[in-house]
Structures are given as structure tokens and as C-alpha cells.
Amino acid sequence: xxxxxxxxxxxxxxxxxxxxxxxxxxxxxxxxxxxxxxxxxxxxxxxxxxxxxxxxxxxxxxxxxxxxxxxxxxxxxxxxxxxxxxxxxxxxxxxxxxxxxxxxxxxxxxxxxxxxxxxxxxxxxxxxxxxxxxxxxxxxxxxxxxxxxxxxxxxxxxxxxxxxxxxxxxxxxxxxxxxxxxxxxxxxxxxxxxxxxxxxxxxxxxxxxxxxxxxxxxxxxxxxxxxxxxxxxxxx
Length: 236
What we know:
The protein is α/β, with parallel strands linked by helices. It is built from seven helices and four strands.
């Protein structure tokens, strides 16, 4: 089993030259993290989803020969968070179009594209993009970062992950519980009026007992699951 820690030096396109890519071993898989720039309560940075998705993607690239790591797509579909200053968003159609075009232009040099999606609001756009790519004869796979049984947004799970991945960016002095009701109960109001209508501080969960150790355990499980999905997506 490959290491499940954050890799030191994956094949990153931003740092590589074209001969680096041309001479890398096959099969070739382009891994693209997809995040968001949206509020994550008073204690986590706006790019939290991008940080987590990028870390998972980097771990995958480190473990898979011939894989390359693209820069993160930093802004996603975050309309439900626009009640909070700092959040930036694009439409579902815009993200879908961007990802389809990215896949088209990657196709001459990469056998497949794997998206590591760190934000639930991106799901519809990415699934639609994958369907369109299938119709056009290209391989675009998606793996969604999620944690069954964890809280929904900026709570214990995400805060623990950030304490593991970027502890200096967590503002411990601002940790506060938000709305702790199950997400299914909140969804009707959330869809109608946004997150601020159900949680004034933007938190869905309780981050006050978050720990780096819990974050490390969650991260290892995420990478293990993502690696299995990535290996299944790699052309044989």
C-alpha cells in the first residue's frame, strides 16, 4: 500500500517542463483538484475546500507512476454561501463548460483526467461535464471528498483536516459551534435562502473538539479511498 501522507514532490505541472511530462512513465493520468472560495465559519480560510482537495490529489499523484498534478480549480459553485462576504462563485454551467474544455485540451497528452472535488456544490456541474466527455469519447472521472458520518461544513471534520494539513491557518480563538441539526433537516431552508439563513456564523456542525490526530486519520482514509478510485480510472 503506498504512503498515505502528504507527498513531498509529486509530478506537478506548475513546476515541470514539457520534457518532464513527455518522459514520464505511462499510463498517464492527469489529476485535477477542484475546490471553492467560500466562507468556512469564522475560524477556517475561504480556500479550505481547495486545500483539502489539493492535498488528496497530491497524495494520489505521489502514489501513481505517470500521474501529473494540475493546479487547483480555485472557484466553484458556491451560491449558497453568497450571504457571507468573501465568497466567490460561478454558475453550474460555467464550471461544467470549463471542465469540458479542460478535458478536451488535456486529451492529446493525457489518457484520462481525474477530478478530486472538494466542494459538494460542484457535484452537478462535474457530473454533467463527465457525461458530456463520455459522449465525446474521453475519460473524465470524478472523486468527491466526503466523510460519511461527519458534520457538514466547517465543523469537527473539516477543522480536524485543516489542523492536520495547515494548522497555522486555523484560527483557534474563533472556534464556535454552528447549527448542529442533521443536514437533511436543514436542506429545504438552505436551498431556499442559503447557509446564512440556517447558521449565522456559517458553521454546520461543532469544531470545538477538532484535533489534528482526527484530521490525520480522516485524511488517510480519504486518500486510501481516492487511490482505489484513481487506480480503477487509470487506463490499462
